Amino acid sequence: MVDLLKAPQEALRSVLGRKNAPQYATRLFQLRDIPSVMRSRLGWPVAAALMERWFSSAAFAMSQEMKESRAPYRLSQLSPAQLEATTVTMAWALGFARVQNAMASLQAKWSSPAGIAQLKDRVEKQSRGRNQQCWRFGDLNQPAKILEDTCQVNYLAFGQWSDPMDDFYGAMGETQVNVAVSGLVTPQGPGKATVDINELGFYLRDAYDFNDGKSFISQPLGCWGFSGVECGVRTQLSVPLQEVVVDESPAAVQNRKYIVQNKDFRNWRTKNQRGGDFMVLSDVRRVRLPFPQKISW
C-alpha cells in the first residue's frame, strides 16, 4: 500500500497510472495499407504490385509532358524508374470484358481518317532513301515503347467511374489501348504508296500518378479500410498517413473506412520523400489478319 503522506506525488501518479492504463494498443488503417488490402482481401495482385512500386520508389512527380509522352519524355527515352513494362500483360487484361470490347472496337475502327493520316506520316518518314523498293513497315517483335514511335497509328480511351471494382479498375482505371500495324509498303510514285497491312499489335498505355491537374477538388479513390473498399456509415473523412495506435478494441476499428483522395498520396510523398509516378505499358498482343487490309494514298 502506498503511503500518501510520505510520497503524495508518486502515489498519485501510481493510482492514475493504474486507472488510466490503456486496455488496447490497436493500429489504425493507414494509406500504406491499401496494397496489402488489395492483395489479401480483394484479390487484386496487379493493382497491388503497381501501388507497391509507387510507395517504394524515390519521390517523383510526373509532369504533363511526360504524361503525354512529349520529348524529351518519349516512352523510349524513359529510365526504368519512370517506366513499368512488365507487370501489366495483355493476357491478364483480356480477362476483363471491357478490355476485350475496347480491343475489338479499335480493331474494327483503327483505319479511321486519323489512323490513316498517322500511318501515311510514318510511312513517308521511313520511306526516305529506300529507292522505291518494296519494304516491310512495322516490326511487332519490338516492345511497346519502340512501337509507340515507329508504327503505332491509333488508340482508344476507355474506362469510367461506373466500371466494376476489380483488379483492372484498381490498376488501370481510365486508360487506353493502342494499336500498331505491320505490312508491306509498295511505292506508287512520288508521294504515293500502297500498304498491305497483315498484322496488328495491341498494347495498353497508362500513367500511374496522383495528380489532379487544374482541378480544385482532389479526385476521390474510394473509401478504404482493413476489410476492403466501400463507403458506409462508419466512413472517416481523412485517412491516416502514418502509423496511429489507439486505445480501442480491434473489432471497433476493423470495419472503419477512410475516404482516400489523390491528394493523400501527394501528401504522403511530401512527408516520407518516397512515392514515384511512372508510365505503364503492357506487352503486345499480336493479331494476324486473315486477309491483308490494303490502304493507298
Tags for this model:
alpha+beta; 4-stranded mixed sheet; 11 helices; elongated; 7-stranded mixed sheet; 297 residues; single chain
Topology:
Layout: H1 8-20, E1 26-27, H2 34-40, H3 45-56, H4 64-67, E2 83-84, H5 90-93, H6 97-109, H7 113-127, E3 135-137, H8 144-150, E4 152-158, H9 167-171, E5 175-187, E6 193-208, E7 220-225, E8 228-229, E9 235-236, E10 245-246, H10 250-254, E11 257-261, H11 262-272, E12 278-281, E13 285-296
Parallel strand pairs: 2-12, 9-11
Antiparallel strand pairs: 1-10, 3-5, 4-5, 5-6, 6-12, 6-13, 7-8, 7-11
Would you kindly provide a written description of the structure presented here, covering whatever features stand out?
Strands 2, 3, 4, 5, 6, 12 and 13 form a 7-stranded mixed sheet that branches. Strands 8-7-11-9 form a 4-stranded mixed sheet. By secondary structure, the protein is of the alpha+beta class. The protein is built from 11 helices and 13 strands. The radius of gyration is 27 Å and the shape is elongated. The termini are far apart. A hairpin with a 2-residue loop joins β7 (220-225) and β8.
Number of helices: 11
The secondary structure category is alpha+beta
Strand content: 25-35%
* Strand segment count: 13
Q: What is the H/E string?
A: HEHHHEHHHEHEHEEEEEEHEHEE
Tell me, rounded to a whole number, the average pLDDT: 91
Our Rg estimate from Cα atoms comes to: 27 Å
Terminal Cα span: 101 Å
- Contiguous low-pLDDT stretches (5 residues minimum) are 1-6
Helix content: 25-40%
Principal-axes shape call: elongated
Q: How many strands, what sense, and barrel or not for the largest sheet?
A: 7 strands, mixed
